[in-house]
Amino acid sequence: MSEERRPIPPYPKQKQEPPGKTARMEPIPDHGEHSYEGNGRLKGKVALITGADSGIGKAVAIAFAREGADILISFLDEIDDAEDTARWVKEAGQKAIVAPGDITSEGHCENLVQRAIRELGAIDILVNNAAFQRTYADISDIPVEEWDKTFRTNIYAPFFLSKAAIPHMRPGSSIINTTSIQSRQPSPQLLAYASTKGAISNFTAGLAEMVAEKGIRVNAVAPGPIWTPLIPSTMPAEKAAKFGQQTLIGRAGQPAELAGAYVLLASDLGSFMTGAIVPVTGGEIMI
After folding, report:
1. Of 41, 58, 248, 269, which residue is 20 to 30 A from 24 by alpha carbon distance?
2. Domain 38-280: what homologous superfamily?
3. Which candidate in 11, 36, 156, 193 is catalytic?
4. Is 193 a catalytic residue?
């Protein structure tokens, strides 16, 4: 990854409507399009990745494809970003299915799993990555409907998808959840989001114990500040401009810098890892 793809804040002030578009970001995030080199670690596998249109999910989809996996790209409605992810997957020589829809619906989650099995032949890896967040200064400002949406997107959906996928997963399969440093260091302005990330960490640990006898591993990655469309679409422009400069490295991470952690947990490189949370935080401490 070239240094110009690792820009130091402050960034240009910018604001988007949720869920945000990659092409409108400045600087454009690096998803590993021109840097990630695969080694066949996931050859013959099928992965379902939520939020795979942009950000971390896009970087994971590109890396998994270059490691040999076919990908079901789950996303809400950001079709241009999702089609771009699919293009990179296909350029890696792998199959890509573009699957829009709302993962807060249990029925849609069940359909995603069935579509992976029907059109790609299996489900070996489930990456529960999609997330919703908003910032508020006071708890009285948080609408109940938004609190509910945050939990349904960030923790109900991983439950729905895991419940649907596990009966079809073979020994050696892997579930990877995206938690956050917010699970240990919650920002008060992200009260709902941080609460769900704490729930995801506990869900990961409990589910790992529940399915160990099936030969399925369950782990999580805990990112610190990562430069994705979620940031300019959910934070005030002034805060987004300084995003990540509090880390020891002095900047936000790029999505490409997390891909290796997901490959580790999805592949035989992580065969003795389950119930683990891998921090990728730029030096922010999670102990």
Report:
1. 248
2. NAD(P)-binding Rossmann-like Domain (3.40.50.720)
3. 193
4. yes
